[in-house]
Amino acid sequence: MEAMMTGMINNIFFIIFPIILYQMFATAGQRNFFVSHRITMTILFSISIILCMVFPYQFLTEDYIFDLRQVPMIVGALYGGPLVSAVLFIVSAVGRIAIGGDGMYIAILNQLLVAAGVPFLGPLYRKVNRWWKAALVFIISIVSLLFNMFAGYFFFGDPIHNLIGIWLMLMLNQGGIIILTALLIEHLQKQEYLYNSLMRHEKMETVSHFAAAVSHELRNPLQSVKGFVQLLQEYEYPRAKQLEFQQTILEEIKVAEDLIDDYLIYAKPVYGEMKRIEVEPELSHVIKIMTPYANARNVEIFVQGSDAASPILGDSQKLHQALVNIIRNGIEAMTDGGKLQVELETSAHTVCVHIQDEGVGMTKEQVKRLGEPYFSNKSKGTGLGLMVTYSILNQMGGDITVESEVGKGTKFTLEFPKLPNG
Ligand code: ADP
Ligand code: MG
């Protein structure tokens, strides 16, 4: 009995551990990593299957040896779809052949049916709520074991002894564990979903804050378009002059368009893959987006940038969000206006962005609490900006340091590991 428990717990560990590992390394803010990381998922579930098969356990009696490989196979097929399922089948079939012995054909046939059949239930599975999901995996798991039982009986004349004592127990055992596994994955996905909506919420809050400043900036190009159109209506200008005015009108419209585009791009939800990006153009873009907001608050942004290459591994949308949050805080800290210095500094192994304001500053205690969710000293603050920023930096392997003095100002430094040039 004790050996059985140990063996079973090992099997459970083989299944659960890769899922947790997966969650740990997956980057939050992705649409859904059980969908967008099919390859990682396949590898991890393959490892689960192999470990389960290599370390099976005796189930209740001496002569019944069992393992939980069906759990990752079924779960993998449901979440991953036909392709993942096919790879998991190959892994488990090869593994089963390597083990050899009685029951090999039944086991492989069973794995084939699971791998081929279960993906068809995927669409249904994704639609239902988690209690139905639990029921569905439980039923699939039982049907699969029933198949084993009857196949042994019909094809090989294995008597079905101890229907209740062994088979029913087996079904409850595997069924319970597969429910646990499915619920765990659902839970992790829900966490991720909540995190993503938090990030979106923070972003929308920022965007709506910008709206007033942007509409103000839009007034300039619109006013000049209006002026030129009125001129063209009132006087009969020579053709050359008309063309010149029309050109100016087009340029002003372009200015307005770009302004709107910048905001629309920024307002897009952030999902994305980590890839090689240059910090310098991204920083310039962010400063462009922030300028109307700064102007509206009498803040002037000064930029000192090195022209050196600044390649890092990251996602440009997320980098924008991180920079916007910090620059926005700097602008908001200067209630009577002032200067915001932004500096890009690259060294052999790092790319640093320094953002320094002349605002209210913070006490040591306040600095310690930065990044805590809902920590805000502003009457209308969300206290989510820096939380999101810290988590983005974390994903990119970066670091944030803060130097601050009450009444003098604050300097945030974002440090990223630099990728090799070229
Ligand atoms: P919010 O801006 O919505 O309050 P944040 O997470 O962006 O939330 O910031 C949390 C708090 O940290 C702010 O309320 C503010 O008190 C403090 N803070 C952040 N940046 C600065 C800064 N540059 N100068 C002074 N205080 C700051
Ligand atoms: Mg903020």
TrEMBL record:
Compartments, as annotated in UniProt: Cell membrane
Keyword Amino-acid biosynthesis: no
Keyword Phosphoprotein: yes
Segments crossing the lipid bilayer: 12-33, 39-59, 71-91, 103-122, 134-156, 162-185
Recorded GO MF terms: ATP binding; phosphorelay sensor kinase activity
Keywords: ATP-binding, Cell membrane, Kinase, Membrane, Nucleotide-binding, Phosphoprotein, Transferase, Transmembrane, Transmembrane helix, Two-component regulatory system
Catalytic activity: ATP + protein L-histidine = ADP + protein N-phospho-L-histidine
Histidine kinase domain residues: 213-420
Domain of life according to the entry: Bacteria
Any one of the GO CC terms: plasma membrane
UniProt EC number: 2.7.13.3
InterPro entries registered for this protein in UniProt: HATPase_C_sf, HATPase_dom, His_kinase_dom, HisK_dim/P_dom, HisK_dim/P_sf, Sensor_HK_Regulatory, Sig_transdc_His_kin-like_C, Sig_transdc_His_kinase_LytS_TM
Membrane topology: Multi-pass membrane protein
GO biological process: cell wall organization
Top class in the EC scheme: transferase
A Pfam family it matches: HisKA
SMART domains: HATPase_c (SM00387), HisKA (SM00388)
Protein name as annotated: histidine kinase
Source organism per UniProt: Planococcus rifietoensis
